[in-house]
Every structure is written in C-alpha cells, then in structure tokens.
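Sample entry (271 residues):
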Amino acid sequence: MGWSRPPTVAGLFYPDHPETLRGDVEGFLQAVDPTETTESTGLKAVIAPHAGYIYSGPVAASAYARIAPLKGTVRRVVLLGPAHRYPVRGLAAISASAFETPLGSIPLDSEFMEKALELEQVQTVDQAHEGEHSLEVHLPFLQVVLGDFTLVPLVVGDCVPEEVAEALKTLWGGPETLIVISTDLSHFLPYAQANEIDAKTARAIQELRPEDISYEQACGRMPTAGLLLRAREEGLQVVCVDLRNSGDTAGPRHQVVGYGSFILSANTSVC
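Predicted structure, serialized as tokens:
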C-alpha cells in the first residue's frame, strides 16, 4: 500500500477544514472574470504562485479557472516546485503512494514516477517533501477543478534548466497530462519596485527567455526555466493571465511578494 504524505501547511497557508477550504477555493475561482477564461485550445501547462491563499489565492485562481474545462480530459498532473526547506541536488521524487489534503487523497502515478527516476538527475529524497509548501498549496485548487487525477510531484533543487526540461520531456504525455509549475516572483520589495521587476519577469516568461530570469525575480526560476525550454521545443505560446502582488491582495505595500499566473498552450487567444 505504501504511505501517504500528510498536509503540512493546512491551517497555515490555507484552511484545514474541508468545507471552508473548498468554499475558499471555489470563491477564488468564481471571482475570475468568465469573459477572460475563453478561448484557449491545447492548454498544456500553467505557472502559478504558492503563497498563503489570502495573498496568492486570487492570482492562482486566474490560472486554475482556465483549467476547469479540462476536467475529465486531464487525468495526470506533473507538479514541479522549488525546494525551500531541504537542499537537494537535481529533482526530488518521493517514496509515498499518495498526497493528502483536507479535501482527500491524491494517488501518485507510480508508472510516471518510475519513468522520472530513470533519469540521473531525479532521485527519491523524502526529506525534500517534508514541510515543503511549494507543491502542497496547489493541490486543493487541482482537486476542486479536476476532481480525480494522479500526481507526479517533484521538488526542484540545485540543477540547470536543461535537466528540468529533460525531466519534463520524459513526463510530457498527451492531453491527459497537465504540467504545473509553482513559483512566486519578487520578494519583499517596495510596491512600485516589485511591479517594475515583475513586469520584466512576465515579459521574459511570455517571450520564452528563461536566461533573463534570475533567482531574485522568481524563487521557482529553475522549474520555470525548464518549462520555457520545453515550450520552445513544443512551439507553445505563453500568456500572462494575472500579475499582482501581496500589496494588491491582502498585505501592506512597503514590502510585497509578487505573483503571476501564466498559461502555456498550443494556441491561445486569451489575455
């Protein structure tokens, strides 16, 4: 049977009561302007933030509202986020068989996990997943918009974008597979300065220029860069669907954290 990774930031980053959590996520999704969620075809990947829901939830919802029409098509989610707590070389898989949230259990895709572990840069490092929020905070959104799916969770540590891109190529799949990259943008800057830097980062992401994104611009620079390399190879288009910071959502403006949501599609006509 294996073991399940329990939620570790429930009650901190998001509510730990199932009904409250589902209500909050649905509220964020319903607040997204429905006229801005169409039309996109061939949606393959999203980039979305991973802070506490009070801060980044509205921005994350801008990406996840666009995934909702894929319910029933997407059956597997490959989720990559940066390591915040445990230093790791390469990409860290986990030996668990499921991830738990207050909304229920998400089984891991054992076949795809094995495919990932065939790569030299991917190792099983359970410690990298202990207390790590960059993956966990996306799961309730995915559970609400997709229902049932399997998960391939990888924490990205010290590596190069090409190593991430190779892992993504291995796990790319078809329409049944969605790629989710977890990252926040600038950290703890004054509001105006953050807006300027985050706008530059958003342009670099949309123009598929990972070389122009530094760690100071995005804590998840490495998984983001790997995805952008893959997007070049696949001919995907990137559109920024939301760009705000904690000063816009729930916090003061003397020090803010930036958040952006992006969708990557074969053909996109949404702004």
